[in-house]
Amino acid sequence: MMEDITHLERPIDVQILLHKAFHTLSLRVEKLAADSEKGGDLKKFEDQFGYWVKQLLYHATTEDNFMTGPLQQDVARDNESKHVVLVKNATDIIEFVGKGDSAGLEDSVKAAMFTLDEKQHEDLVESANDIQNILTREMGQDKVITRTRRHLYRKVMDMRILEFDHFENEEVFVIPLIREQMAGNQELELARLLLIDDTADDPRWVIDWVAKELKPSERVLLQELEDSFAGISAAAD
Fold this sequence. Notes:
Layout: H1 14-35, H2 43-67, H3 74-98, H4 106-115, H5 118-124, H6 128-139, H7 141-181, H8 184-195, H9 205-213, H10 216-228, H11 230-236
């Protein structure tokens, strides 16, 4: 469990609140993936995973455009490259789930095709589904589903670890650069953009989610930060 957050020294420290919210959400999704190994419905997992990806995409895009974009150091480019890797992992998982309960048979299908003689290979290479059907019949549908869910859980766990490592590096290497290079109002505006989506029908969809994932005392910090956003327009006038 992450430690309680008791204060924010600077507006950019909103990242600590955001990372804690992501920590809670991604662990919840991972647990749903683990529970699915028992053969349960994947719908709840898919809904929560989709929401995780939606939040992660907005967060990464906002960081790339308004946080690391203005920075000069190579560490900023590295941070952006990590976002690409995270999105690729998320896309792979979405595709995996979309293949249904035979997705986990891909490696077994390749192995089975490799053992076929040349004539059989020519006949079947264009239709891996035929081999999947044979394997499903031989292994039993329950084992096929279990294998698929086990692979899914491992993929989600790998993505969660990647996310945790990325946020940790961001806090150690990127946030200090923000403190050094951004003016106060620029930093405050970045915090606002990370929490408020000006382009959405519901601009508060990010900040409201973050608040739900935090403890009451941390919500107070979030509210105090939001209250300070009014100072951005006031300073501009």
